[in-house]
């Protein structure tokens, strides 16, 4: 089965789809500081790659899959002090996702899944709350594989598991694969590893990148990133999304 970009279809083409069997994927990211070497839309780039990889795996198994335009604005308070980061309230994020789910439900779609790699705690809470509200309102199933929880995060490499993975080797590898022209390569190769763990800092009550030990808004080892590693990680993210959806259906 082909993978469709919903926004590129006409309304009559959507009308004629087998919507009661159609799986819909919404990439969710942020406009947020990602070190001095990656663009502000890094999380959107990665979420979109995750969505496409997962959709392809599902389509190869005979499922009809549609990908929505990415949601690029969300809660991003950890990076709010850095120029260019655009953070909105978690309540707004939850309400928007639930409203999208409601509209898809009204049109008879089977399921909505969120492809997400933005790990700001407030953002994750907003997505989790959206899942709960969609269920309470008896909307279509809303699937959200939270990469900070087992078993998903254990499959994304040592840096991801360490928590020192914001704009580091993990994310930079994926952007090198997806949009190599967007990586400031001369800057990337000059960056020394930052081993401070965001997950540890969050547990300790830190609430900003700076307080967590990332004064330039990166954690991990961006200089070690490769496009080859990025391809492997995209495949792993796609597999996580596909498995979460399969479990729900």
Describe the structure.
The protein has helices spanning 11-15, 42-60, 90-106, 121-136, 158-162, 169-178, 185-188, 198-203, 227-248, and strands at residues 3-5, 22-28, 64-67, 111-116, 142-143. It is an alpha/beta fold. It has a single domain, classed as Creatininase (Rossmann fold, 3-Layer(aba) Sandwich). It has a 5-stranded parallel beta sheet with strand order 1-3-2-4-5. α2 packs across α6 (169-178), α3 (90-106) packs parallel to α4 (121-136) and α6 packs across α9 (227-248). The chain is globular, with a radius of gyration of 18 Å. The protein starts with a strand and ends with a helix.
Summary tags:
alpha/beta, Rossmann fold, 5-stranded parallel sheet
Provide a brief overview of the structure.
The chain is 42% helix and 9% strand. The chain is of the alpha/beta class and 249 residues long. The model has no long low-confidence stretch (mean pLDDT 97).
Which geometry do the CA atoms define? globular
Summing up helix and strand content along with how strands pair, one would put the structural category as alpha/beta
- Taken in chain order, the helices and strands follow as EHEHEHEHEHHHHH
CATH architectural category: 3-Layer(aba) Sandwich
Strand tally: 5
The helix tally amounts to 9
State the separation between the terminal residues, measured CA to CA: 17 Å
Within CATH, the superfamily carries the name: Creatininase
* Spatial ordering of strands, largest sheet: 1-3-2-4-5
* Mean pLDDT over the full residue set: 97
Provide the helix percentage: 40-55%
Poorly predicted ranges:
none
CATH top level label: Alpha Beta
Largest sheet: 5 strands, parallel
What is the C-alpha radius of gyration, as a whole number of Å? Answer: 18 Å
The total domain count is 1
CATH topology-level name: Rossmann fold
Report the β-strand fraction as a percent range: 5-15%
């Amino acid at each position: 089965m082909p993978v469709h970009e919903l926004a590129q279809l006409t309304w009559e083409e959507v009308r004629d789809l087998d919507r009661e069997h159609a799986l819909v994927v919404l990439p969710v990211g942020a406009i947020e500081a990602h070190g001095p070497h990656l663009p502000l839309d890094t999380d959107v780039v990665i979420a979109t790659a995750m969505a496409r990889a997962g959709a392809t795996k599902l389509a190869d198994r005979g499922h009809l899959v549609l990908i929505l335009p990415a949601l690029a604005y969300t809660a991003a308070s950890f990076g709010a002090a850095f120029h260019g980061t655009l953070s909105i309230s978690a309540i707004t994020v939850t309400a928007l996702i639930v409203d999208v789910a409601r509209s898809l439900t009204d049109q008879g779609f089977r399921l909505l899944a969120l492809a997400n790699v933005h790990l700001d705690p407030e953002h994750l809470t907003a997505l989790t709350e959206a899942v709960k509200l969609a269920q309470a309102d008896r909307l279509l199933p809303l699937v959200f594989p939270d990469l900070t929880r087992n078993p998903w995060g254990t499959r994304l490499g040592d840096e991801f598991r360490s928590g020192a993975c914001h704009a580091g080797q993990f994310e930079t590898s994926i952007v090198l694969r997806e949009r190599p022209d967007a990586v400031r390569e001369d800057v990337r190769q000059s960056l020394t590893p930052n081993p401070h763990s965001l997950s540890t800092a969050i547990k300790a009550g830190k609430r900003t990148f700076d307080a967590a030990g990332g004064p330039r808004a990166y954690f991990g080892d961006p200089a070690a990133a490769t496009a080859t590693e990025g391809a492997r990680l995209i495949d792993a993210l796609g597999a996580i999304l596909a498995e979460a959806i399969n479990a729900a259906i």
